[in-house]
């Protein structure tokens, strides 16, 4: 089994997606580390919202779109021999949007008018889909520089899988939409005089919007979009380019899930949507899988025996002359606890294995990463995950 | 800290990081309330259909449907909410004739974030107000709200709208919503977390931010999937001694080769619990809210049975 190795060797961009709480960030970071150690070259992991300790471990301090090298010593300390260089960066949504405006605005004055607009502020800070888009936009920007052989990106938690895949095309549609022209029309035509020549189709819309929201607000919106329209061509072209890159042969998607019912269902939905939209589905990573020994028949038998024969086994253990085992009742109690705990966990392990057998694939590569008892919070932890993603 | 009187409120929000069991806890709270004679409306905000699933019922739309005795579910649909709002509040009679209402709404909502949120919150508040004033008969409205990252925008939507819209009926219409949302006799915001690093970190951050940016009163933090403590200190010493060659031989003789799997399994359970204990104490130290604990359920399946087990655990924690 090659795990992710041949996939990673053939691609330039790997996008990790999956529902919240499945360990996507850790898996993406571990994959980048593993690729650096195994394949070499310059590898970047672009992460969205890492846990504090993980960010520290990767050498990421504070926020901002800065790419930092993961110190080679950290690799060595974790028992990995890096063949290449590994970099990490976090996504700063606001900063990325501002940079985008600065790039596409026809002049500085327009740029600042947009940056100062409170609708712009709301759009970039609160509009959830804007995170999806800007992550892909940033990926495009970094890829375009050609600085890295491989870029691994973690995706923002989306409420809906579709939102994420459609983000670039939605952005393009949004700025080229008829409604945008509609809404800004009276203002483009010059205030009151223009309003009079509105066509019949759009009149009810204005009347209602005006009644609901007041004309001041409508004017704010229009002003914002008129300014935005100046960068319309560049922006739409860019969104289309981002979309092309995601569909490119050099890009692949890896879906991360746990073997729990709802994340798995969402993971399968991700896979389905990827295939339907003709993205390349490269791998499915099953994370936090319980160890297979919990499924063993011998284990189950032993657990039952330990529970039913706890009293006489407790007596036998107490008679062995070991201090910690001197109390037969305690020994019996511990045996029962162990047996019951085993059976509890094996219920969950069986449920997992059942879900796995029902898994409707789509991905040729399926990799298991076991549940670790400690948190994945440092390079050593990532190295342990990487060992499963890139088995020897 | 005294158990909060959650079932005595009219409006309960549940938020939490993705994957912590927010919907299960919201469904279980509704079930618990129904068991105590309340007529409950559960509002599902992200329309994933997961609340109905917790009751093993078919997916529900914008019209509330009873999925279990005393528990009604409504799945949020912002377009339907807007139509209802226009009809009820502004007496706009021509709703059917306003051509591409959906697209227009999507556009305005996209252009002015807060519109979608206010349509959601507005519907929720409207159901609460109607029942307080005796025109609807919900004793309790439970909201399976947005995840931690988005819930502040959701609950703060009425304020945000007022900031942007300086006149008009929409502005006036948001004021009564805020009045309901900040009333501690009516509303409580609850956060669901698991004892893991990110859920705990997000809970702490959310509580801090919500206190800064919103006046919505808190109810409780529900700590979900708490693993059992297997051994006392002395028990653990015995457990360690089982690993010595002689005692292990005794166990193996009696129970076969599977003993090592059982020992490993217990070790796994102990370490998992220990790792989580660190996060749990961090949560306890950082958040001064009542905590309700729901044990990890070693259950075969999801559905009504699991919802009931969580409801029982919550009932015990609430002293019901």
Characterise this structure.
The complex is a heterodimer of chains A (392) and B (320). Chain A has 392 residues and is of the alpha/beta class. Chain A has two domains: 5-111 and 129-169 and 242-290 and 371-389, 3-Layer(aba) Sandwich (Rossmann fold); 294-355. An eight-stranded mixed sheet of chain A has the order 3-4-2-5-1-6-7-8, with helices on both faces. Chain A has helices spanning 5-10, 24-38, 52-57, 72-77, 93-104, 108-116, 118-126, 128-145, 161-176, 178-188, 191-196, 203-213, 215-229, 232-247, 261-276, 297-308, 310-318, 328-357, 379-389, and strands at residues 13-17, 42-47, 68-69, 85-90, 150-154, 251-258, 281-289, 365-370. Helix content of chain A is 60%, strand content 12%. The longest helix of chain A has 30 residues, at 328-357. In chain A, β6, α15 and β7 (281-289) form a beta-alpha-beta unit. Residues 191-198 of chain A have low confidence and may be disordered. Chain B is an alpha/beta fold and 320 residues long. Chain B has a single domain, classed as P-loop containing nucleotide triphosphate hydrolases (Rossmann fold, 3-Layer(aba) Sandwich). Chain B has an eight-stranded mixed sheet, sandwiched between helices. The model of chain B has no long low-confidence stretch (mean pLDDT 89). The interface between A and B is large, with 84 and 81 residues.
CATH architecture assignment of chain B: 3-Layer(aba) Sandwich
State the end-to-end CA separation of chain B.
16 Å
How many H/I helical runs of chain B?
Answer: 13
Largest sheet of chain B: 8 strands, mixed
Biggest interface, residues from each chain: A-B, 84 and 81 residues
The CATH topology name of the largest domain in chain A reads Rossmann fold
* Fraction of residues in H or I helices of chain B: 40-55%
Under the CATH scheme, the architecture of the largest domain in chain A is 3-Layer(aba) Sandwich
- The total count of strands of chain A amounts to 8
How does the overall form of chain A come out from the CA principal axes?
elongated
| Global morphology of chain B | elongated
CATH superfamily of the largest domain in chain A: P-loop containing nucleotide triphosphate hydrolases
CATH fold category name of chain B: Rossmann fold
Mean pLDDT of chain A: 84
User: Strand-residue fraction of chain B?
Assistant: 5-15%
Structural class based on helices, strands and sheet pairing of chain A: alpha/beta
The SS-based structural class of chain B is alpha/beta
H-E order of chain A: HEHEHEHEHHHHEHHHHHHEHEHHHEH
Which consecutive residue ranges of chain A, at least 5 long each, have pLDDT under 50? Answer: 191-198
End-to-end distance of chain A, in Å?
9 Å
The number of domains of chain B: 1
């Amino acid at each position: 089994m090659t795990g992710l190795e041949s996939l990673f060797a053939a691609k330039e961009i790997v996008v990790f997606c999956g529902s919240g709480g499945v360990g996507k960030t850790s898996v993406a970071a571990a994959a980048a580390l593993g690729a650096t150690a195994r394949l070499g070259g310059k590898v970047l992991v672009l992460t969205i919202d890492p846990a504090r300790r993980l960010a520290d471990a990767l050498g990421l301090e504070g926020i901002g779109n800065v790419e930092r090298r993961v110190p080679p010593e950290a690799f060595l300390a974790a028992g990995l021999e890096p063949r290449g260089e590994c970099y990490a960066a976090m996504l700063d949504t606001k900063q990325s949007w501002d940079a985008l405006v600065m790039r596409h605005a026809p002049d500085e004055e327009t740029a600042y008018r947009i940056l100062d607009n409170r609708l712009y502020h709301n759009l970039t800070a609160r509009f959830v889909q804007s995170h999806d888009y800007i992550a892909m936009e940033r990926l495009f920007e970094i890829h375009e520089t050609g600085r890295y052989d491989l870029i691994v990106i973690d995706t923002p938690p989306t409420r809906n899988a579709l939102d994420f895949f459609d983000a670039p095309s939605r952005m393009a549609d949004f700025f080229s939409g008829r409604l945008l022209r509609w809404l800004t029309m009276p203002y483009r035509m010059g205030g009151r005089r223009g309003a009079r020549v509105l066509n019949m189709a759009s009149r009810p819309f204005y009347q209602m919007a005006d009644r609901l929201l007041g004309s001041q607000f409508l004017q704010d919106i229009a002003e914002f979009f008129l300014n935005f329209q100046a960068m319309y061509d560049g922006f739409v072209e860019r969104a289309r380019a981002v979309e092309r890159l995601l569909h490119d042969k050099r890009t692949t998607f890896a879906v991360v899930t746990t073997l729990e019912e709802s994340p798995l269902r969402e993971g399968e939905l991700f896979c389905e949507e990827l295939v339907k939209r003709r993205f390349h589905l490269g791998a499915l990573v099953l994370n936090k899988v319980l160890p297979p020994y919990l499924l063993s028949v011998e284990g189950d038998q032993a657990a039952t025996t330990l529970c039913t024969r706890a009293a006489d086994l407790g007596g036998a253990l107490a008679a062995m002359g070991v201090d910690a085992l001197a109390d037969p009742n305690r020994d019996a109690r511990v045996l029962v606890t162990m047996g019951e705990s085993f059976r509890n966990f094996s219920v969950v392990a069986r449920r997992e294995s059942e879900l796995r057998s029902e898994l409707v694939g789509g991905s040729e590569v399926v990799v298991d990463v076991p549940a670790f008892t400690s948190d994945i919070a440092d390079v050593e932890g990532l190295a342990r995950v990487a060992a499963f993603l890139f088995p020897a | 800290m005294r158990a909060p009187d959650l079932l005595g409120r009219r409006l309960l929000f549940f938020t939490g990081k993705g994957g912590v069991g927010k919907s299960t806890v919201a469904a279980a709270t509704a079930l618990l309330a129904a068991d105590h004679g309340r007529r409950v409306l559960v509002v599902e905000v992200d329309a994933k259909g997961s609340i109905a699933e917790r009751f093993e019922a078919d997916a529900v739309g914008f019209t509330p449907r009873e999925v279990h005795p005393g528990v009604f579910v409504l799945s949020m649909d912002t377009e339907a909410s807007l139509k209802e709002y226009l009809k009820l509040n502004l007496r706009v009679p021509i709703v059917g004739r306003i051509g591409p209402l959906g697209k227009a709404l999507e556009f305005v909502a996209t252009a002015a974030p807060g519109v979608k949120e206010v349509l959601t919150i507005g519907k929720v508040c409207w159901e609460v107000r109607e029942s307080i004033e005796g025109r609807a008969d919900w004793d309790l409205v439970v909201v399976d709200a947005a995840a931690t990252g988005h819930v502040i925008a959701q609950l703060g939507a009425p304020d945000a709208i007022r900031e942007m819209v300086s006149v008009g009926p929409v502005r006036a219409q948001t004021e009564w919503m805020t009045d309901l949302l900040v009333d501690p006799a009516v509303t409580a915001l609850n956060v669901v977390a698991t004892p893991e690093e990110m859920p705990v970190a997000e809970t702490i951050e959310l509580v801090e931010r919500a206190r800064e940016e919103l006046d919505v009163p808190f109810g409780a933090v529900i700590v979900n999937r708490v693993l059992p403590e297997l051994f006392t200190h002395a028990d653990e010493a015995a457990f360690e001694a089982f690993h010595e060659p002689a005692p292990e031989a005794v166990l193996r003789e009696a129970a076969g080769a599977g003993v090592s799997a059982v020992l490993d399994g217990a070790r796994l359970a102990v370490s998992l619990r220990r790792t989580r204990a660190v996060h749990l104490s961090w949560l306890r130290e950082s958040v001064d809210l009542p905590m309700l604990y729901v044990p990890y359920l070693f259950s075969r399946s999801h559905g009504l049975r699991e919802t009931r087990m969580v409801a029982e655990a919550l009932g015990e924690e609430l002293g019901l």
